[in-house]
Fold these 4 entries.
Entry 1:
Amino acid sequence: MASKTAGGQLEDRWRDILSAHARTMCEIDRALHPHGLGASDFEVLDMLAAAAPEEGEQCRVQNLVGRVHLSQSALSRLIARLEKDGLVTRSVCMEDRRGVWVALTAKGRDLHAEVLPLQRAALARTLGA
Amino acid sequence: MASKTAGGQLEDRWRDILSAHARTMCEIDRALHPHGLGASDFEVLDMLAAAAPEEGEQCRVQNLVGRVHLSQSALSRLIARLEKDGLVTRSVCMEDRRGVWVALTAKGRDLHAEVLPLQRAALARTLGA
DNA sequence: CCGTACTGCATGCACGGTCATTGAAACCCC
DNA sequence: GGGGTTTCAATGACCGTGCATGCAGTACGG
């Protein structure tokens, strides 16, 4: 019975994660959608905002792929959308001309600052106090 | 500073959930895909298998919607796929002819039994011991 | 009874995601 | 330095999801 309990505990933990993930993700989406952003969009914006400001808040795409929970292709499209909306700019990296730099625009920085408290509030709402 | 820490803790917790969710989901998908199933498919199969066997392992769709982390429309399509693959059968509910019963077929029951240990193993791998 | 509101599931549509592939650039090693 | 391999990012094809809607069937109120 001990083994059955262990399996059940894992199963329970997994259900908890699934539930927390779904509820929080949905809540963030609802909070951010009025501003034209989804949860993934914010995740990227947040990383760029957190990226070394001494480097002009820019970041190589390759650098983001590892940190974000998205495939490389999804990230590429997401950045394209952000660029189209004027929130970030892309520019080729001069050292390695395969790479591209992604940088927040002023508009992107403002929007991030605007929605950050909303995301925090959503987290607080669904993840408890 | 206390409030800043609180915000950071929430943020960390969220990142942990995101990470665990992504890794586990991916692992389950990889384990189940060779058998023609995704993580959501298994979730539904598992619920049907757990559903009161005295009722013939059947369940109303309405009953599943609340338990599964899927919209009603996604669930409807998912069940349609499972039915096409011969894993479940749909039949109208005689008491309330709007509702439909979903029941595991023998094939569905077998497949569930076959992949259950794989899912458990994936959970164990990514969720620790 | 008949009409209105409501509920349960299916469907049209658009969006965002992954996988596989491509193209360009760097690397390497002879 | 030219040919094979690897790396970075973008693109095409396809799939699953959510939202809004449609369509049966039910419940209620006159």
Entry 2:
Amino acid sequence: MGPAVGAASVGSTAAAISVGTTGGGIRERARRELTAAIKALARQQLATSGADCLSLRAIARELDMASSAIYRYFASRDELLTALVIDAYNDLGAAAEDALAASAGQPAMSRWVSVCRAVRTWGLNHQHEYGLIYGTPVPGYRAPRDTVAPAGRAVLALVEIIVNAHEQGIARPPNEAVPAAISANMARLRNELGIPLIVGDGVMTAMISMWAGLFGLVSFELFGQFHGIVDVRDDFFDHSVTRLGRSVGIPD
Amino acid sequence: MGPAVGAASVGSTAAAISVGTTGGGIRERARRELTAAIKALARQQLATSGADCLSLRAIARELDMASSAIYRYFASRDELLTALVIDAYNDLGAAAEDALAASAGQPAMSRWVSVCRAVRTWGLNHQHEYGLIYGTPVPGYRAPRDTVAPAGRAVLALVEIIVNAHEQGIARPPNEAVPAAISANMARLRNELGIPLIVGDGVMTAMISMWAGLFGLVSFELFGQFHGIVDVRDDFFDHSVTRLGRSVGIPD
DNA sequence: CCAAAACGAGAGCGGCGCTCCTGTTTCTGA
DNA sequence: TCAGAAACAGGAGCGCCGCTCTCGTTTTGG
């Protein structure tokens, strides 16, 4: 491409960055925009065809550039996929956090259901991206360190509701003992996440179960396991998620 | 397939059929053996490399035949994958049923945990096959009718425990009302599966939630979501699964 | 102002799923 | 019994794919 590289045209869906990214020279700016354009096109291709149909060559074609040029921006297909994974985690996390913020002041159970619904709705609207992060891990792919922080955002929104309920003394936690091994595990976790001691081992354990349960529900629905089984998806989800909330001590 | 169709489960790698498969002529027999060999090799390749690394050409190479010859036995890569999916469902289902049978006479909760453990253990020992059936749907999402019956086997083993507990009057079901829409859904399901009315709507609903919860636990463990979170996997699983059992009325 | 770095294009490698054609082997029934 | 039908294996080939290497150009920074 020429000097004042396309860039401006680029985004059939991408582009629209510019604001707040006015650093560096022409090349640096073009790089940011092209990187974004590639990711946007990849996301679009993901949405229509699924993860393993994602083709660097197809993206290059749509961008009117040689397929080899893509490798200036992503060292491999896996690296592009990883970038999409991080974006997906962040997008889902933002959706959960938005629901949490929007429900401020409401009763704990309302907020709980709101955040859970946000997770499910995001999944329904981003099926392939959901599959990318909560489905079968791609072969030989190891989650880089960059993914752990974004991955935590959604669940931390839920944790906050539980912690709040306990700090306000309105929680009805299950008063069951847990084995010593689990107790130690939970102590470490509580320490790492800065969760107060008022959230007991039983609740901590239940919280993780609930976390897996929530995504089990969403995954089963998205991945087709509920086909022919659950007809009333919305009602069923709300009801199940309310039960999950009770199991971690959130009062009705 | 032929009259006294194979069914002899094939060897772990291939061949070794012979017994009980004396139907038809040379060609029919060769077809059965080659079909089994292809599937065995595919399973092996699946175990080492993952689902989307499965290559018909590689299988053909290992079988010393032209890649085009494979298409005499499986019309496409997807069809081979579907066969593997069915086998995986059946294998998992058999593991669950074995655990159910082996625990006959024990208390309901013991049987419950045994079957759940069988599911998890099978998953740990067949990670890629598990991912094939409970992970992201691969072939652009379509589950042929042949998969629904095998897919039901594992969960039906769990359902049997719950039904037995209710019929014996030892269950402690959650006595909560469910919305009318869900109630109708559960009535249909109860009818289709032949579940007695004594298993109420609340338990039916909880059962499906529990089902999703169990596989959510296994999936999270297998797909790496518990990395750095849950250290004591065995203890945590047993504990969580016991809680799930209680939530569907199984007494301690 | 010029060397170094970044870049885009093109050719090419090996592998893939899948199809078509050809020649051979087995099966079937008049 | 024996020819036609059907099933089969091999080979060549098409259009993809991810990825690499080279080469000429453009931008950058000392």
Entry 3:
Amino acid sequence: MKIATWNVNGVKARLDSVLTYLREAGPDVIGFQEIKCVDEAFPAEAFEEAGYTLALHGQKGFNGVAIASRLPLEDVRRGLPGDGADEQARYIEATVIGNTTAIRFASLYLPNGNPIGSEKFAYKLAWLKRLEAHARRALKDEMPLVLAGDYNVIPEPVDAKRPDAWTSDALFQPESRAALRRIAALGFTDALRACHPEPGVYTFWDYQAGAWTKDNGIRIDHILLSPQAADRLTGAGVDRFTRGWEKPSDHAPVWVELG
DNA sequence: ATGGTGGTTCAACCA
């Protein structure tokens, strides 16, 4: 089963690119982040014609997450538990019915959190705590669990071309990194890093200052695998080629193959 | 280098 995640930075602006990617990469299931539209405005017909069924959790103008799958989806959960007052659409989860086994798959969009010290940064850290609590509960199930998305956290200096340029950024704060480490320590495998220990593995290049042409990237899109999912990991990668397309997203897709 | 670019919605916010 090929599983992918992609922050598309606006699904309506990126529709042609996304459909091309589905044709060329052919993921069985893919999580999207920053669809930036309400469910009713999502171009669902184009995905259905491409053979994908959808689970949506949209929001007007900002955020918004979705799952597209060639395999049946069941038991869709919208929103991350732990704060009933949180109205930001950043989390959706569903069971993917595979040919041999089912997996639980989440598409998540963690808050950016800039600037540090602000309410946005506190929201980011609170969201990480909620994700930890939810992941701890979900791990108790028997099903393989895949937590994929834009985490907005640079885990280690090796995950940035210029780590010194990020020291005062919410994406690289010690608190953000420690919170992600606590989640990983529950028993998850960082699939991309596990398959690619070498430096230079990035998933995001800013639109500004020629970051793409200078390969001035960071690795902030992650796929975390529960032990049951990690046992089946046969490969992972970044589809950097999409970043070189016309009108690209600033993120590239990340994928894993589970045998 | 406190700039620079891009999406959504329509003056401003978010990243």
Entry 4:
Amino acid sequence: MERQSLTLEDVAREAGVSRATVSRVINGMRNVDPAIRDVVRAAVERTGYAPNRAARSLVTRRTETIALVISGAGEDGEDAGDDESADARNAFTARVFADPFFGRVVGGVVGFLRPRSMHPVLMVAESEAARSQVTAFLREGSADGALVVSTHAEDPLPARLVAEGLHAVCFARPALPAPISYVDLAHREGGRLAAEHLIARGRRRLATVTGPLDLPAGQERHAGFRETLERAGTAYVPLAEGGFTLASGAHAMTRLLSEHPDLDGVFVANDLMAQGACEALREHGRRVPQDVAVVGFDDSSAAHTCRPPLTTVRQPVEEMTAAMARLLQEHIQGARTEPTALIFEPELVVRDSS
Amino acid sequence: MERQSLTLEDVAREAGVSRATVSRVINGMRNVDPAIRDVVRAAVERTGYAPNRAARSLVTRRTETIALVISGAGEDGEDAGDDESADARNAFTARVFADPFFGRVVGGVVGFLRPRSMHPVLMVAESEAARSQVTAFLREGSADGALVVSTHAEDPLPARLVAEGLHAVCFARPALPAPISYVDLAHREGGRLAAEHLIARGRRRLATVTGPLDLPAGQERHAGFRETLERAGTAYVPLAEGGFTLASGAHAMTRLLSEHPDLDGVFVANDLMAQGACEALREHGRRVPQDVAVVGFDDSSAAHTCRPPLTTVRQPVEEMTAAMARLLQEHIQGARTEPTALIFEPELVVRDSS
DNA sequence: TTGAAAGCGCTAACAT
DNA sequence: ATGTTAGCGCTTTCAA
């Protein structure tokens, strides 16, 4: 059951060459005689040799591993001992991983890393103690860098990583400014697309369920929507703030409906909330899209799950997270040094809800 | 930006002791003079020292990292070069991570590992090439062992890992027998709970949407359900096989309904399919639970999302995956050598769908 | 209890 | 093109 610790030395002996030559063959260096190369390869094959990653990392100072950090902003005091607040953590973890958005993040990251034989280490960082774990992990060289997805504004992690001189790239511009690379969406443009679509559909009594307004994404999506309506002559757009969760969407929709029973169109700042909004609309006897047109945001799996399937503003999450991984790799390899922003364009996807 | 490579030597000099002593303090060995221990700790603090993981792993032969493998069974031939079949992979990855089940798996694993300062490396293994990556990863000592969650029967990975002498624990008994530890649910018992509940609710014209019948979980849930009805005198239970996805549930339900328009209760082998079934029922003018009572399985987030919220057989996934991680740790530490099965009991959760 | 020293398995600089 | 050798930073005997 124990690793039989076959080393370069063993393979070298088997092939009748030196350690260095075997190393060269394994690392695909060009300056090796083709004949010898084949002999070595055969020896590797025969012995079933697998290089030791720790030994290699020790000298190359690279692990070929990156951390994928899902970061919250919990400011809860230090945990007492190693018995963390299990409930708080589980609640956060459960909520994060239940969100279809997260699956797309992982998909994009894995899509980029795997062909390069790299793999992400999953870390959840919703407390101060957890953030320390993340920085410690990187500082001890367990990973070459971090991909950070914040779920809250005011997340102190990006700035912390920069301060520690660690490689990191964020999903979305950090609310707390820091000289760090990130990928983001032209959220404002997305809000505009939603507004134009609803207007084109002939809806005139519009409202919106926004995301958290302390988050840039929440603000910008709303701003783009409101601005566009304003240019079209609408002075006031009823608004209810949600928290990007299904329940908060249903709740916000209900509020909107009670204050503006005659509304005929609504822009909801993400699909999960839009799904909740559709349920709330149905419960209040409104048909979607006949009575009320609904436009979501993200084009996540919730857009398909929702009845009716959602018209939504697509955010190319997989492409964005793949780009994040590429950006990080460039920083790690030193091919890029300046903090860089990569902004993606949203796209309207028309389905049945409007 | 480069790691400033502070070493044990530096801390030792700072503290005026030897490397060995600093090492002992850092690893919490008892045989260190308390006074010296404090001096060393102060030096560590002052210098901001972080031990190098690779160097440590090289000698301890342990990485404190484990792989979390989501495994499919794709038998597709070897990929040509490093340009994997991106579409197939993305489809698999997207489907896996969109499933609420997966979030709970991660939650349970992280819940166990994090307090121990360990973190899972996420790997997707749906092709032969990907499986090779997984074994190579483990053989080179990049992780101490693997947690394997198979999404298909006939997954060759568990047997492969055993053959390679690597540490691994499976979620659910492998369909292809192998001497390997696993955690599982008493699926048959779950089917029984569903049947008894529907009978107690007075439903008599029952049917079932099963999971894939080549999967032990699919077979057993169905067997438990059918057996129990049989003992209650029912000779035949209409059945439609699904694939554990929302769409397959809706489809199976529609088929069932066309053949047995008068059914008044249905057991659906997971919540995602049950959600699809509820939608299909609604589309065919049936009210849930008044006309047709529905019982799901898993108690995943889909059970809450579903309208109405699902009565379901709870599978304690988080506990099960945490137990998996513990089992793996025991194997790694040598505290457990025999393949072990840990079977969890299901529990009926009554909500509004029946 | 503490220190000196021998590796862990690999890469890379240098010599040939 | 190949071999020799000096570390990478740590843990862990073994002596003191």
